[in-house]
Amino acid sequence: MRSLSIFGATGSIGESTFDLVMRQGGPDAFRTVALTGARNVTRLAEMARALKAELAVTAHEDCLPALREALAGTWTEVAAGPQAIAEAADRPADWTMSAIVGAAGLVPGMRALKHGRTLALANKESLVTAGPLLMATAAAHGATILPVDSEHSAVFQALAGEDASAVERVIITASGGPFRDWTLEQIRDCTVAQAMAHPNWSMGQRISIDSASMFNKALELIETREFFGFAPEMIEAVVHPQSIVHALVGFCDGGVMAHLGPADMRHAIGFALNWPGRGDVPVARIDLAQIASLTFQKPDEERFPALRLAREVMAARGLSGAAFNAAKEIALDHFIAGNIGFLDMAAVVEDALASVSGCETFGKLPRTLEDVLSMDHLARKAADTAAGLRQQKR
Ligand code: NDP
Ligand code: MG
Predict the structure, then answer these.
(1) Which residue's CA is minimally distant from atom 4 of ligand 1?
(2) Residue ranges of the 1-deoxy-D-xylulose 5-phosphate reductoisomerase C-terminal domain (predicted)?
(3) In terms of domains, do 35 and 107 share one?
(4) If 363 and its partner were Cys, which of 185, 213, 318, 357 is the partner (CB 3.0–4.6 Å)?
(5) 227 and 348 share a domain?
(6) Distance CA 214, CA 3 (A)
(7) Does residue 292 sit within a domain?
(8) ipTM (interface predicted TM)
(9) What's the pLDDT score for residue 134?
């Protein structure tokens, strides 16, 4: 029986993973080693009961009593706190889903890789903040990382059986989000609710807003660079409002392989769950005649400066990805809290990057997790200061 763990089980990706695992036999087909969540302990306990999980962990100590009560009378152990989540990753599982949101997903993912098994990676922040370290850890322990982000799953699928040295370019698509056709002035005054209203995908709050600002695409450009190892100038993003084509890979003979799929993350999750084979996944099938047209346009870096910042980060590499992601997370917190405007997010990230770029370690590739975490910490402080200044100006 295959064993599995799901980190971030109660989130959008976690729910879709749980759904597929249940459809593929649930506890009759899988031994569930660990499930983790944060605030939503009621749902975490329901999932743990349904999968007969050996361990359920919440990220927050104050949620532990509720989790313990919800799982009373079951054989599921309970625990709380970031350390307990990291320790849950020390328990070997054949297949681990990394779907915690933000930099908090890095440590458990790194620790799961040490078992030399399979990590299904939705947490793109791990690759952005610590790509070289993550890939080296996987290689050192003979572990496999399978990308779950839809664009990266698409590139992975388009590359199957191909010689990577024949690749000329990789194009990932962006829906353009809710503000694709808005003017700069309209975007400046948008609300959190408007930023969350993604036209094609149903996702967690943070990634939905990151999609509206194109910070999500910025992270994904860096993720492409770190996961596949292609040079930055080979990687581009194109706006494709229908979200049917997820990525394209161009080869040296002029051929281009495009990956098409429904805008439903269960395709990419199901691909990772059933890899190296394919399993039946209950997503809508694409009807091209009904869709009628697939359109593409160049992204506008003036309205969406996150893309320009991503290019700068890809060029600088080193610990700039860790700084970029951390600053972005703080800027997003301030936008959600109503302290700064939507366009201030990119300005805060740019200010924070400028502030930490003088730091001696900025341009150096991370050698240890501590390198990454200390840059993350510095950039969070710098972004917090930058956001405070912007807030005063409003
Ligand atoms: P959600 O916000 O829906 O879920 C996040 C999960 O992480 C929840 O289980 C949440 O617990 C938990 N969590 C939140 N904060 C912490 C913390 N500090 N420590 C530990 N656990 C925590 O996110 P998504 O599912 O949308 O995204 C998850 C990851 O997948 C992100 O990295 C995202 O970029 C990536 N991704 C998501 C896609 C999508 O379609 N949603 C597509 C591609 C990639 P709780 O809910 O109990 O509070
Ligand atoms: Mg994506």
Answers:
(1) 11
(2) 145-228
(3) yes
(4) 318
(5) no
(6) 36
(7) yes
(8) 0.99
(9) 98
**What is the structure's pLDDT at 294?**
97
Asked if residue 377 and residue 236 are part of one domain, the reply reads no
Edge-to-edge strand list for the sheet holding 30-37:
77-80, 55-58, 30-37, 2-7, 95-98, 118-121, 144-147
Same structural domain, 8 and 121: yes
Pocket test for ligand 1, best of 12, 16, 155, 175 (most atoms within 8 A of CB): 12
Burial class (CB in 10 A: 0-12, 13-18, 19+), 19: middle
204 in contact with ligand 1, CB cutoff 6 A? yes
Instruction: For residue 8, say whether it is annotated as part of any ligand binding site.
Output: no
Q: In total, how many domains does the chain have? A: 3
Q: What does DSSP say about strands 30-37 and 55-58: parallel, antiparallel, or unpaired?
A: parallel
> What's the confidence (pLDDT) of residue 249?
98
Judge contact between 202 and 19, C-beta under 8 A. no
> Three-state SS for 99?
coil
Q: Cβ distance 182 to 204 under 8 Å?
A: no
In terms of residue numbers, what domain contains 243? 149-262+284-300
38 belongs to a structural domain: yes
Q: Is the shortest distance between the CB of 8 and ligand 1 below 6 Å?
A: yes
* Of 178, 195, 203, 198, residue with least CA distance to 265: 203
Ligand at shortest distance from the CA of 148: 1
Q: Mean pLDDT of residues grouped by 10 in the chain (394 residues)?
A: 98 98 98 98 98 98 98 97 98 98 97 98 98 98 98 98 97 96 95 94 93 98 98 98 97 98 97 97 96 96 97 96 98 98 98 97 94 97 97 88
147 lines ligand 1 (CB under 6 A): no
Q: Same structural domain for residues 250 and 349?
A: no
What separation in Å is there between the alpha carbon of 141 and the centre of ligand 1? 26
Residue 361 belongs to a domain with what CATH number? 1.10.1740.10
Same domain? 71 vs 194:
no
Considering every ligand atom, which ligand is closest to the CA of 124?
1
Instruction: Kindly state whether residues 253 and 196 are assigned to the same domain.
Output: yes
pTM of the complete model? 0.97
